[in-house]
Design brief:
Order of helices and strands: HHHHHHH
Structural class: mainly alpha
Number of helices: 7
Mean pLDDT: 88
Radius of gyration: 18 Å
Largest sheet: none
Shape: globular
Length: 172
């Protein structure tokens, strides 16, 4: 795409490290689920995830790449995805907050990614960010809240007449 548009290049902005977290076990929310007896809660969350994954697979099986991109950028998918991450943050206990620790790492990673985007752009630049769907909600929020960018909804280019996807974003 960059070549077709005659752009000078593509900038990689990912960051994926433990950063200031010294002990990997402090972010092991799956172990914390076992210690806190939260298996039933995790099973409920996994069922929501399975239903959402089945819906995504259905879109992929019966549609186009454009349909899948529309699905992954829809308000319903973004909301369901964000809620899944917030569920992770609740795993563990006040004395063993591995889920919250993992979320600090996740939020921190997205902040570092966003910082890399900011550092590679100037006022007036038009920026296309292509990233894993799980990052979409936080990167959009950071871009909007920062005041550095005017964020456009990708669905308006993919299919402005499409209905939002229906997903299970059920609360706890």
């Amino acid at each position: 795409m960059a070549c077709d548009l005659g752009l000078p290049g593509v900038v990689a902005v990912d960051w994926n490290d433990l950063g200031p977290i010294a002990d990997e076990s402090s972010v092991d929310y799956l172990a914390a689920i076992e210690r806190a007896g939260q298996q039933e809660e995790r099973a409920r969350h996994m069922e929501i995830g399975k239903r959402n994954a089945a819906r995504s697979q259905q879109v992929l099986d019966n549609g186009t790449i454009g349909d899948m991109l529309l699905h992954l950028n829809s308000p319903g998918w973004l909301e369901a995805n964000a809620r899944a991450y917030f569920h992770i943050g609740l795993y563990g206990t006040a004395d063993d907050p591995a889920g919250a620790n993992w979320m600090m790492l996740w939020f921190g990673r997205n902040q570092r990614i966003f910082n890399n985007i900011v550092r590679h752009t100037e006022p007036g630049d038009r920026v296309l960010v292509i990233y894993g769907a799980g990052h979409g909600n936080l990167l959009r929020q950071l871009a909007e809240d920062s005041g550095f960018y005017r964020v456009h909804d990708a669905t308006r280019w993919l299919d402005p007449t499409a209905e939002p996807s229906t997903l299970d974003a059920a609360a706890r």
